[in-house]
Design brief:
Length: 494
């Protein structure tokens, strides 16, 4: 008996208690591994969607955004899922037949239906923001502007989406939301490095927006935001009539007065010659009104292709003579000194990208344009047979305008020119005001930084699993080298 007891004491695996403990260990281990697997398994992601229609002066674009439902307050989580370009011109071109404005959106609304899961249609907000084209129409004919807006509202309200409004946004909003978009996409709000200014060149207006170290002197140019726990005072200004289509009319107006039958233009290529109607130049509130007789005339627009002369003629569209603030850009508009880096998008990008000037210094850009503007029109057409005729004819003018606006208008220098990046998209999402507009209206940018857990959930579960296995191994090693702690009473040991 004594021998048997001794044997059992030496081979504790035979002890009922040990078997019991081992069974519990193994069961606990299996449970832990199972929990870790289940918790770490990717849960099917739930997405939310939002639609913004950018009713610009030249055209309307529909943007569909998507984001993971539970992460909507994190910077950089919303991305552009899809875009649809509305056929035809901008909604302001439907002034004489307002019902056509709403009708023109139908195709892209159908397209959006196919791009968002049907069960999400009802909860997907849809917004429309109209910009400078509608601002001009409102100035010219407020009744027609109202009718056009009523028409687009009706179309959006009849869609299955959650209609959240259609309005003409202000120039300050256009500038500020463009700034929010580029900095949200660049994840700059939660970085110490600071933010990026935004430069937007549309067809009818242009915006400049940046954080200025100096206090903004004029209240009209100041916008305050508190985002992710930081305060930003923005300088922003929108120049109505200084988008690339309207500014061409301003430049032509200066050269066309008094109305002649032909016009020699250094901003168009040598050999370019087209008959145009005077009405096409003077049909906007951006230029002076002329008498009806002159309005019905036409003129021949001849190119002479000279960059330096083109620049001098473009300088005439800016007024540098009056400034009631400490400093101004042009037309008496206050502007603090340029600071930091800038993202330049829309036509800034389209034009500079076409001219292959997105990565060049200001001096090289001027040299490039000198050669380009002087190239005969026939050679240009031959080189770019597929490019839209209107764009192609105007790249010399547009490029020269961009350089003049940035250097002489906004006071960029040869030195800080390199801080401008000409951008179209940031990580597959277009730079523009629409994303910032939606983020703001859906309260997706919190004023205070959301609390973030120390580590992601998956990491936490994995860490707990590893620590448990580690403890189990320690326990086994302890048993192997020191034996099982005795369960018998001290009396028996004695
Ligand atoms: O902001 P607003 O002023 O309302 O105008 P928009 O929103 O319609 O203006 P866009 O940025 O869409 O375009 C700016 C201008 O660039 C023109 N544009 C678009 N694509 C272009 C391209 O590939 N090359 C040259 N010009 C282009 C367009 O016709 C406009 O005149
Ligand atoms: Ca625009």
């Amino acid at each position: 008996m004594a021998e048997q007891r001794e044997m059992k004491a030496k081979t504790p695996w035979h002890s009922g208690k040990v078997i019991c403990v081992a069974v519990f260990f193994i069961a606990a281990l299996i449970t832990l591994v199972a929990i870790a697997f289940v918790q770490n398994k990717p849960i099917p992601q739930k997405y939310k969607y939002g639609i913004v229609l950018d009713a610009g002066s030249s055209h309307t674009a529909v943007y569909i955004y998507e984001w993971p439902a539970e992460k909507e307050n994190n910077t950089g989580m919303v991305r552009q899922r899809h875009t649809c370009a509305v056929k035809g011109k901008g909604i302001s071109s439907y002034a004489q037949k307002s019902s056509g404005a709403g009708q023109s959106l139908m195709e892209c609304i159908e397209d959006a239906k196919g791009n968002i899961p049907a069960d999400k249609h009802e909860e997907t907000p849809v917004y429309l923001g109209a910009t400078a084209g509608m601002r001009l129409l409102r100035m010219q004919d407020s009744e027609s502007a109202e009718e056009v807006m009523t028409s687009v509202k009706a179309t959006l309200m009849s869609s299955p989406f959650d209609y959240q409004g259609a309005r003409i946004i202000s120039g300050q909003e256009e500038g500020a939301f463009g700034w929010i978009t580029v900095n949200y996409l660049g994840k700059n709000f939660r970085k110490a490095a600071g933010t990026m200014g935004a430069l937007d060149l549309g067809g009818a207006s242009t915006q400049i927006t940046f954080v200025s170290g100096q206090s903004v002197e004029s209240p009209d140019n100041s916008m305050d935001f508190r985002l992710y726990g930081n305060d930003y005072q923005l300088y922003t200004h929108s120049f109505l009539c200084y988008g690339k289509d309207q500014v061409l009319k301003l430049a032509l107006e200066k050269r066309l007065m008094p109305v002649e039958t032909s016009l020699e233009d250094p901003c168009f290529h040598p050999g370019y010659s087209e008959k145009k109607s005077v009405k096409n130049v003077f049909d906007t509130p951006c230029v002076h009104t002329i008498n009806k007789e002159d309005m019905d005339k036409s003129f021949t627009h001849n190119g002479t292709g000279n960059f330096t002369e083109c620049q001098s003629s473009i300088m005439k569209v800016f007024n540098f003579s009056q400034c009631t603030n400490s400093r101004c850009s042009f037309n008496g508009v206050y502007q603090p000194p340029i600071e930091g880096t800038f993202g330049a998008f829309s036509a800034f990008y389209f034009v500079m990208n076409f001219l292959n000037l997105t990565g060049h210094s200001l001096a090289d850009s001027k040299r490039g344009l000198e050669v380009y503007c002087n190239t005969p029109w026939d050679a240009i057409k031959e080189r770019h047979p597929t490019v839209k005729h209107k764009y192609l004819a105007e790249y010399c003018f547009s490029g020269t305008y961009i350089l003049t606006l940035l250097e002489n208008g906004y006071n960029f220098t040869f030195e800080n020119w390199k801080h401008i990046s000409f951008i179209d998209k940031i990580e597959d999402s277009n730079a523009g005001w629409t994303l910032g507009y939606m983020l703001n209206l859906t309260n997706m940018i919190p004023a205070e930084a959301p609390d973030t857990p120390l580590m992601p959930h998956g990491g936490f579960v994995t860490l707990v699993l590893f620590l448990t296995i580690f403890l189990l191994i320690l326990l086994l090693l302890w048993y192997k080298f020191l034996g099982l702690p005795s369960c018998s009473s001290p009396k028996e040991v004695v």
